[in-house]
Structures are given as structure tokens and as C-alpha cells.
Task: inverse folding
């Protein structure tokens, strides 16, 4: 990692009262950086505090200790520079799809004319495949996938410095998820946005991310590893599985989530260097065929997804 | 539709008309006719036997009365004889004035106590004690303090319409989903902007429900209040016609009270539909 990343999270710790007079440490000393334009996913089991980290980055929650620096400056509280796509879409149900996006654009650019705001919003809705009369529908008249598209359009239209995605596809069926992942990649490619995303889906993370952060189980969760995704872009869902590194990376992730996230959990870590261990797997040169495609892989996958 | 090709609405309308017709006919037949004057003896006529006995009038008489009153609703023949339009106008004026004042207090105040759990808990005991008081119980106090019967009637409307609006506003505001508030926060909206662009539209259906309950109560209460304060208004009119033993007018005004109440409610039902949203 570069000495001064664009976004740097330093020794972030969150503790809550455990209801019995003591304190429960959800995660401890979470330390990582994100470069400008980078797409980083974080994976971990439920309860390890991923969403809390996300909320702290969004400014919606306060950490017990630790700091977040963006461009060298400490950040606190919510800001238009950090856009959020929530898992449950969080569209305002009394506004049409278009108005939900202009809501954000108007907040970002209060000086713009109504026409300009409208056009900008429509452009970004079109980027995620929503145009025509659909944009005048209320969220209740849209399918789950369309709602999430609107939510993604709202976040991207604001062109924030950092985009936070909290399991954006968690509530969607697999087919819709695939389509929107492609759209997300396309919009991301067009805008070169810095993205930090929570997911439960290993394949999704490999498809989308430059780097995947792996969290151990809570309590005392920490970010143990940072895995480089050594598959060149542009990627496609059918293309990446052909790549030599795909199964190697995938197996590493599955192994971590299935086994090592438990082994590493539950211990307080008094270490001087809390930065995650960097994992770089690149077999593209050495073994063009990669891992075998059958074997225990399918079974492990089921274990890891939605675990 | 295979049978008769009538929609449910049409069939319901036909049924309503049939029920009305049957009801009116039964009512008409149930009223015994007055004895004809010619059959009375001279003595009976001299002792007033020929005068119409006060009785519940048949619907035909009420309809005639209604036609008479509604064809000239704004006449003034002295303080005790004014047209139905003037009476209803006074009542609506009092209701809307008291109601508007109540809304001006209840909605902003409800907003505040809905936003703050501490304020809600602090004010709740007072609200719970004041709310169940019959609005008419305030009347003596209002008359003594305000010294004006018209203003006292307005005050009674104010005090009775404030509670449903206050509680519903507080409840609606407190129940706005945190997700939506978070959307406002991540878009750096100020407090005032958040209140108007997120919390108000989110809570609007609950608030308008409270307003609709309030207008219903206000219209119920104004009749009773006007019976006490007298002078003008539909409530006073009912009581005055009772004193005149003019039951035709009493029945007519009862129907008018129902009709105006229905219109007020329909206006708020329309408002409710306008602010409704589906999640």
C-alpha cells in the first residue's frame, strides 16, 4: 500500500455495553486504506461489524475510538462527499424514481437550474437502464431490482469522493443481481469512483473488487487480510471463471470464511501493526489451468454464501 | 359480469335508493293523520282541539320544509329567525377558526415532541390528563375568562380539535423510518430542510388522519356548544326550533348537520388520499 492512501481508516474500534454491565468489543483496531478510484469489498460473517464500519464511514455512527482520514483530513459526521447505497434502497416512497434522484442532485448542486438537475438525474438513471416513463413511477410501483437501480443512480449522480455500498444486492434474486452487477461495473467504469462495498457473496466480490478485505468473526473482530484480485479488467461474470487466478482466489476466500475466520476470532489483538496481511495470488503465469473446477468447491461455496 | 352486467357500485347504489325509499314510505305511513277539523264539535273547536297536535312529522313535510329553507337560505327576519345558510355559515366559521388555531399549535408542537423522546415523556402526563376532558366542560371557564360567548365557542372547538392532531403528529414524526432520516443526513440537509422535505411528507398520512379525526370531533362539539352559547349557529337553530316545538325544522336541521359533517370529512379524506404513499 502507498504510504498515504486517499482514505485511511486508523485503529477503528467499536464497543457496546453488553447489557450485563460489561462492554462488548465488536471490532478492534480496524486499519486499512483505500486508494482513489479503487473498488474495495469487505467480507465477513454476520455480526463482525461490517455494517458498523460502513455506518461510521458514512458518518451515521460514531466509533468508540479511531479515526478516518480522507485526503489527509479527519472526517466526522455525514457528508455529500460520502454517498451511501443502503441495502433496503432507502428511497423516499412519496417521490417518483426521478424525484428521488433529483433529491440528491439538488442537495449536491443547489445552484443548478431545475432543468439541469433533471437532465443530470435522467442521465444517471439511463446509465442503470431506467428511462422513459419508468422514471415517473413511485418506488412501490417498481420491482426490487429497479428500486436498487434508482438508489445506485442517486448515489452515483452525486459523484461523491467515496461511495459506500451496504450489501446493495442482498435482497435481490440471482438473475437481477447479475444484471445490476454489470450495470454497477459499467457506471463505475465511466465515473472512476472510489467504492467501498459490503457483500456476503464471494463471486460478487471477485467480479467487482480490486481488493477484498476479510474480517474475522466477532467479538473482537478485526480485518485480517487484504486479498488482491489479480484478474484484469474489464471483467465479465462468464469471463472471470476462465481466468487462472479465479479459483485460487476463490478457494482462499472460501477457506478463510469457512475456517480461519473462526480460528482467528474471539481474541483481543495487542499488535503493533494492525494493518491487514496482504495476500497476492497470481498463478496466471505459473499454472494457466488454475485449480480444478470440481471437488469440494461447490459444497464450500454454499457454506460461505449467506453464512 | 355474466348476470345483468351491473357493476358492484351500481348495484350498491340501487340498493341504497331502495332502502331510502322503503324507509321513507314506512316513516310516512307510521305517522297517524290528524283528525279532520270538520269532524269536531263546536266545543272541541273552541277549546283548541282543531289545532295541530305536535307530533313527529312525516318525511313529506320535512322535504317541503327543506325545499322552503334551501330555496332561501340567507334570509334574516330578526335575531331568532335567520336562514339555514346563515346558521350553518356561523357554525362552519366557528369550527374552522377554532380548528385552524388548533392546527397552528398542534402540528408544530407535535413535531417537536415527536422529534424528542424527552419532550414526549415530559409532556405526555399533561396531554393524558387534558385529553379526556369533555370539551364542553371547559365552557364555564372559557366564558368567565374570555367573557365572550362566540369566542368561548371557538375556544371549545380549539381545545377539542387539538388532541388528535397533536398526538397523531407526534406519533407520525416519531415513527419516521430512520433510513429516510439517514438519507437526509447523508445528503447534508439542515434541520429545517429535513423537517420539510423528509419528515413532513413521511409523517403526512398520520398527521392528516389526526386532522380528519379532529374535524369530525369539532363538528360534533360545535352543535352542543352552540346550544349552550346561543345566538347563531346550527346548534342554536336546533334548540330554538325545539323551543318552538317545530319538529319539522329540527329533523331538517339534524339532516343538515349530518350533510355538512359528511362534506367536511370528505374534504379531509381527499387530502388523505393526496398525501398517501405506499411503501
Result:
Amino acid at each position: 500500500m502507498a504510504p498515504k492512501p486517499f482514505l485511511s481508516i486508523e485503529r477503528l474500534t467499536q464497543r457496546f455495553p453488553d447489557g450485563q454491565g460489561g462492554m462488548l468489543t465488536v471490532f478492534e483496531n480496524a486499519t486499512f486504506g483505500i486508494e482513489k478510484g479503487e473498488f474495495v469489498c469487505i467480507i465477513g460473517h454476520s455480526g463482525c461489524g461490517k455494517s458498523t464500519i460502513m455506518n461510521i464511514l458514512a458518518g451515521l455512527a460514531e466509533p468508540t475510538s479511531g479515526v478516518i482520514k480522507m485526503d489527509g483530513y479527519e472526517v466526522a459526521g455525514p457528508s455529500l462527499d460520502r454517498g451511501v447505497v443502503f441495502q433496503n434502497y432507502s428511497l423516499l416512497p412519496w417521490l417518483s424514481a426521478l424525484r428521488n434522484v433529483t433529491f440528491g442532485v439538488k442537495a449536491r448542486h443547489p445552484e443548478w437550474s431545475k432543468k439541469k438537475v433533471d437532465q443530470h438525474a435522467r442521465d444517471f438513471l439511463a446509465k442503470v437502464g431506467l428511462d422513459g416513463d419508468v422514471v415517473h413511477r413511485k418506488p412501490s410501483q417498481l420491482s426490487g431490482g429497479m428500486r436498487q437501480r434508482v438508489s445506485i443512480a442517486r448515489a452515483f449522480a452525486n459523484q461523491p469522493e467515496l461511495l459506500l455500498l451496504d450489501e446493495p444486492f442482498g435482497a435481490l434474486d440471482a438473475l437481477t443481481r447479475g444484471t445490476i452487477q454489470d450495470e454497477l461495473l459499467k457506471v463505475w467504469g465511466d465515473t472512476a469512483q472510489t467504492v467501498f462495498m459490503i457483500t456476503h457473496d464471494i463471486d460478487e466480490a471477485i467480479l467487482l473488487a480490486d481488493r477484498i478485505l476479510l474480517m474475522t468473526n466477532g467479538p473482537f473482530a478485526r480485518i485480517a487480510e487484504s486479498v488482491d484480485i489479480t484478474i484484469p479488467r474489464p471483467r465479465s461474470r462468464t469471463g472471470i471463471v476462465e481466468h487462472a487466478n479465479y479459483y485460487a482466489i476463490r478457494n482462499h476466500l472460501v477457506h478463510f470464511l469457512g475456517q480461519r475466520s473462526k480460528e482467528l476470532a474471539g481474541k483481543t489483538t495487542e499488535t503493533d501493526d494492525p494493518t491487514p496481511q496482504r495476500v497476492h495470488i497470481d498463478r496466471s503465469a505459473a499454472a494457466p489451468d488454475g485449480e480444478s473446477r470440481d471437488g469440494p468447491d461447490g459444497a464450500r461455496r454454499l457454506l460461505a454464501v449467506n453464512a | 359480469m355474466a348476470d345483468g352486467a351491473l357493476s358492484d357500485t351500481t348495484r350498491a347504489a340501487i340498493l341504497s335508493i331502495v332502502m331510502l325509499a322503503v324507509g321513507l314510505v314506512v316513516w310516512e305511513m307510521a305517522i297517524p293523520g290528524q283528525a279532520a277539523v270538520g269532524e269536531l264539535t263546536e266545543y272541541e273547536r273552541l277549546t283548541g282541539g282543531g289545532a295541530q297536535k305536535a307530533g313527529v312529522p312525516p318525511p313529506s313535510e320535512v322535504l317541503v320544509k327543506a325545499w322552503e329553507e334551501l330555496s332561501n337560505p340567507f334570509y334574516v327576519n330578526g335575531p331568532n329567525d335567520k336562514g339555514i345558510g346563515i346558521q350553518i355559515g356561523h357554525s362552519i366559521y366557528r369550527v374552522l377558526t377554532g380548528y385552524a388555531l388548533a392546527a397552528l399549535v398542534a402540528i408544530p408542537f407535535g413535531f417537536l415532541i415527536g422529534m424528542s423522546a424527552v419532550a414526549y415523556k415530559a409532556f405526555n402526563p399533561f396531554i393524558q390528563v387534558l385529553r379526556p376532558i369533555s370539551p364542553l366542560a371547559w365552557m364555564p371557564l372559557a366564558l368567565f375568562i374570555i367573557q365572550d360567548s362566540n369566542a368561548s365557542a371557538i375556544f371549545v372547538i380549539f381545545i377539542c380539535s387539538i388532541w388528535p392532531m397533536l398526538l397523531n403528529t407526534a406519533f407520525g414524526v416519531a415513527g419516521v423510518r430512520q433510513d429516510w432520516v439517514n438519507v437526509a443526513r447523508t445528503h447534508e440537509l439542515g434541520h429545517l430542510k429535513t423537517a420539510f422535505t423528509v419528515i413532513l411528507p413521511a409523517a403526512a398520512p398520520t398527521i392528516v388522519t389526526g386532522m380528519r379525526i379532529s374535524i369530525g370531533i369539532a363538528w360534533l362539539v360545535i352543535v352542543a356548544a352552540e346550544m349552550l352559547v346561543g345566538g347563531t349557529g346550527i346548534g342554536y337553530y336546533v334548540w330554538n326550533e325545539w323551543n318552538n316545538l317545530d319538529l319539522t325544522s329540527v329533523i331538517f336541521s339534524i339532516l343538515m348537520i349530518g350533510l355538512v359533517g359528511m362534506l367536511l370529512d370528505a374534504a379531509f379524506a381527499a387530502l388523505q388520499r393526496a398525501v398517501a404513499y405506499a411503501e
Remarks:
- The mean pLDDT of chain A is 85.
- Residues 244-263 of chain A form the longest helix (20 residues).
